[in-house]
Amino acid sequence: MQLNLPSDINAFVQNLVTQGRFENEQEAVVEGIRLLMSREQLRAEIQEGIRQLDDDEWVDGDEAFRETYAEIAEVKARKSESA
Q: Which residue, 25, 23, 27, is CA-closest to 35?
């Protein structure tokens, strides 16, 4: 794939390579795309969270912590019994 980047972006990428942040332009562009992919994944997860809230598919924070601490205590108890 050949990319023609706008001059300001090309200069930015070149500067990153010159500074030693990346070995070459391709590495810099790949990192930028990875960041974009992460942002899109986060956006999808946020949308899913909004959907869950809208559909009343949520758990009270205090309740969630109580359940988590109870599960941890249960695991610790089983480990103590088997030791």
A: 27
Q: Identify the CA nearest to 82 among candidates 23, 1, 74.
A: 74
pLDDT digits (tens, 9 = 90+) for 10-59: 999 999 999 999 999 999 999 999 999 999 999 999 999 999 999 999 88
CA distance from start to end of the chain = 59
Taking residue 11's Cβ as centre, other Cβ atoms within 10 Å add up to 11
Q: How many DSSP H helices and E strands does the chain contain? A: 3, 0
| Tokens describing residue 61 | 């924070």
Instruction: Extract the tokens encoding 51.
Output: 């959907």
Phi, psi of 76 (to 5 degrees): -65, -40
